[in-house]
Amino acid sequence: MTTARPYRVCLCVLLVFSGLYCAHAGEMPKLLQETKEQQDQRMKWWREAKFGMFIHWGLYAVPAGEWQGKQIGGIGEWIMNNAHIPVAEYEQLAAQFNPVKFDARQWARTIKDAGMKYLVITSKHHDGFCLFDSKLGDYNMVKATPFKRDVLKELAEACKAEGVTLCFYHSIMDWHHPDAQAPSFPDYNSAKHNPEFPRYVEYLRGQLKELLTNYGHIGILWFDGEWIGDWTEAQGITLYNELRALQPDLIVNNRIGKSRKGMQGMSGEKTSPGDYGTPEQEIPATGIPGADWESCMTMNDTWGYKKNDQNWKSAETLIRNLVDIASKGGNFLLNVGPTAEGEMPAPSVERLAAIGKWIKVNSESLYAASPSPFAKLPWGRCTGKPGKLFLHVFNWPKDGKLDVPGLSNKVAKAYLLAAPATVLSVAENEGKKTLSLPAEAPDAVDSVVVLEIEGEPNVTVPPKTPRKAEADGSVKLPAAEATLHGDTIKYEEGEGKDAIGYWTDPKDWVSWDFSLDKPGKFDIEITFAAEKGSGGEYTLTCGTQELAGQVTETGAWTKFVTEKPGKIELFAAGKYTLTVKPKNKKGLAVMNLRSVVLKPAE
Asked: Going from the N-terminus, what domains does the chain have, and what CATH number goes with each?
């Protein structure tokens, strides 16, 4: 291929934005404000959508995780960085990028059939290659590849035809543009500075203007790479204001700002740019109360296509993740990494079809649904709408009795969403409602029970009763009853887990309360799992006793082992709190923790 010509910024772009970056050094520009009513109207479609598709697609799909005959670690779209590929060599991939099987209308139909309401696609990722026909350089799909088609233009038309809202991901970081990165690349160091970075900012702004003027209505601009040393909060604020001036209804994620703090839904004057939070590869244990947020997640272990990554999440996990997120007030942005030929991988398509099938039956419980009024439900999740609660039953009760704790509202009617004619009886006793269910669950993944209630949901949280010793004197502390402390950990059920997982932050910890009728010495047994490369050290405390333990690799997140870190002695009867706190973490996560058991020591 011909090496891309030098970047250029049109004079008209500079004139349009002239003066907007001329604040005095150290002066923070004023962020665009709006009333709560204006904010609610702008965010309405997104809040109701609940489910969108993320697509990471670019030159990195060509090597598909391999370089010079070797498999490269890490996520697929970072191969330029992870394999230390010089710019001139990486550019040659454009000559091989010819996605002749790309069909924009088919993609849009797949998105729609999966029940997804919007698409966020990488207009430009960190490697600097653009999927659109930019007039500000030749390093793009139209000018540098044999395909020579503007795939974003085709997707804009297809999404409009299928009723899918088109959105763009755009990287602030750029490994290709000479003015964007420190000269040390490919030995990348985000803290280093490029003295020509202001020139790159003009290029960045110019391309964003193209995206917002040449492709019709855009729902979201989804930024990333804001952590580079040259990007500032002031630049993020100014860019946010500019983009909203071009399309006033535009929604922008919080990664446009250096602090990532910008999230709408918070009370008071907005001080940081961006409209919603973006937890990545995790679901916050309690959501992000008072703010809009969206969990983005891969189906396997990579965003960009890697042919050897076959570690696919099941359709069950993805459906339950969607419901879990909706029950906590968030949106789910689920990723697909298409091949270099332009096809969505078959495992992705299969899972999307399964999700779409579930949504088709249960859509009323998802779109525009409000979060759960319950802090925790042992059998699943809950969403709501005025006058209705949707009980998402993951674990169908074997005895046919489903307890709904603490709900004081009168239940006018209960029925299965999949079979509205199946009316269920409801009994009330001891501060809970008990539903009589059919012997078989309508859906093994998530069966939805509808409660039609009078008034706003009124749920009383009963006081937590500490665990007591068993008849043999042992104290069993299961994962489902733990109190979780932190932002990433959550209780996972199904698929052989039944454990505290997503323990990706070693600052997170767990605790249990229990009571003893008599003192004694106890052997501690802890049951955990950790895939290859993960694990870490932890401290277990109870009363005045403390033990140090080590999480060793077990081979998989569902391969549990039980180890004994030591003995403790509790010197009096009464109430105790046992805690497990990581000291460090290696690999993806600390562990999946299934239980802690105190066994009387001989």
From this structure: 11-364 (3.20.20.80), 380-453 (2.60.40.1180), 467-600 (2.60.120.260)
